Amino acid sequence: MSWKNQLLRKKSVAQMLEQVDKNESSLKKSLGAFDLTMLGIGAIMGTGIFVLTGVAAALHAGPALVLSFVIAALACVFAALCYAEFASTVPVSGSAYTYSYAAFGEFVAWMIGWDLILEYGVACAAVASGWSGYAQGLLAGFNIHLPNALTSAFDASKGTIIDLPAVLIIIIITALLMMGTRESASLNTIMVLIKIAVVALFLVVGVMYVKPENWSPFMPFGFAGVATGAATVFFAFIGFDAVSSAAEEVRNPQRDMPIGIISSLLVCTILYIAVSLTLTGIVPYKLLNVKNPVAFALTYVNQDWVAGFISLGAIVGITTVLLVMMYGQARMFFAMSRDGLLPELFSHVHPRTQVPQKSTLVVAVLVATFGGLLPLSSLAQLTNIGTLFAFILVSIGLVVLRRTHPQLPRAFRVPFVPLVPLLAVLFCGYLVFNLPTLTKLGFLGWLSVGAIVYFLYGRKHSRLAKKDDSSQT
């Protein structure tokens, strides 16, 4: 077989669905639409609403932060519709990786899978570090302080060696994920309801202290600042795509996947807009460059008791983000391993819990290493560009699959194709354009490493490659 044919060999939807039915590599179907919606909100609403709102307002958008959220949300809504159709048509683990395998072929699928490994992995490590900061702040309120060496990633100048709280939360989340998907989803639902209640409390109390004069000037940094703010707060929406990783564990994916993806994104968008308006109405935007802007706003108006609840809600909120992102990362390894592109151990499913435990353990080790030992401030920016790249490919892939496989049953259909996918590509491309050049170069470097790994390992071990070889002998 020629190199071109090897790179473009596709996995049919029928092959994917047949693979799901095999007992040795199938996952337990235990989730419904409500579970998926809670998973989506759990993944989306965390660091973005509790941290990024202040930084983006103070440095980039001012009170026009609300417009930044609208632009970022539009990019996500258009992409979410494409994800919803794919998830209802191809209800298989792997998210954008699986969809690309059907639409573009093996090499593009591998590259998007490699991209998502970066997205989920760096995001998990960064979120674990953020959780550590909030947890240490809460402990400090009780006059409990960890030894300096255990408070942050390795930094000889500061005397820090490892971020112990980050490692501990990863161990706890891993233990929970290995118990079973149903158990993980149930706890996630409880934590999501808590953080929604906390955000609602902020809005109810905060609206009484809103001063309209704080919204003037509304756009102090111009529209360029709004665009940069949108590229920054896009991180706040990352997570709904992780819902599509659960497709194989949903009882009725054709109906429930679109509901879970779209409803979770809409709920979070409404809450983000409400919080950003209230936040910039309470506090002059120049003062919001802090790590805990939502709690800070309430302290600013002498509502310290509510600020305490907000800090606790932030810890719960960030915990759910870590839970869902580690879940998505493990399913990504599982899907790629089942196709032979990664070692077989990643696709081993525990016979009792029907969870890919080895994949989950490997993810935990990697995330704990990065989150505990390495400062991630520069790497975290790569999460945004990796996600935008995935959104663009999924949107294009939907148009391709519509033309190449028009006969496929689609429980949910994106309206106004190809207009909606094109809008997703344009909005996501615009946000990529507004990211720093160094981030783009770093992303290209990561993809280059991925290409090398594919040619050295994936191309030879691919299940499709083995089928082709057997058919030629």
Automatic annotation (TrEMBL):
<keyword id="KW-0472">Membrane</keyword>
<feature type="transmembrane region" description="Helical">
    <location>
        <begin position="160"/>
        <end position="178"/>
    </location>
</feature>
<feature type="transmembrane region" description="Helical">
    <location>
        <begin position="360"/>
        <end position="379"/>
    </location>
</feature>
<feature type="transmembrane region" description="Helical">
    <location>
        <begin position="190"/>
        <end position="209"/>
    </location>
</feature>
<dbReference type="InterPro" id="IPR002293">
    <property type="entry name" value="AA/rel_permease1"/>
</dbReference>
<keyword id="KW-0813">Transport</keyword>
<keyword id="KW-0812">Transmembrane</keyword>
<feature type="transmembrane region" description="Helical">
    <location>
        <begin position="65"/>
        <end position="84"/>
    </location>
</feature>
<feature type="transmembrane region" description="Helical">
    <location>
        <begin position="305"/>
        <end position="328"/>
    </location>
</feature>
<feature type="transmembrane region" description="Helical">
    <location>
        <begin position="221"/>
        <end position="240"/>
    </location>
</feature>
<feature type="transmembrane region" description="Helical">
    <location>
        <begin position="439"/>
        <end position="457"/>
    </location>
</feature>
<feature type="transmembrane region" description="Helical">
    <location>
        <begin position="261"/>
        <end position="285"/>
    </location>
</feature>
<protein>
    <submittedName>
        <fullName>Amino acid permease</fullName>
    </submittedName>
</protein>
<feature type="transmembrane region" description="Helical">
    <location>
        <begin position="414"/>
        <end position="433"/>
    </location>
</feature>
<feature type="transmembrane region" description="Helical">
    <location>
        <begin position="36"/>
        <end position="59"/>
    </location>
</feature>
<dbReference type="Pfam" id="PF13520">
    <property type="entry name" value="AA_permease_2"/>
</dbReference>
<keyword id="KW-1133">Transmembrane helix</keyword>
<feature type="transmembrane region" description="Helical">
    <location>
        <begin position="96"/>
        <end position="113"/>
    </location>
</feature>
<feature type="transmembrane region" description="Helical">
    <location>
        <begin position="385"/>
        <end position="402"/>
    </location>
</feature>
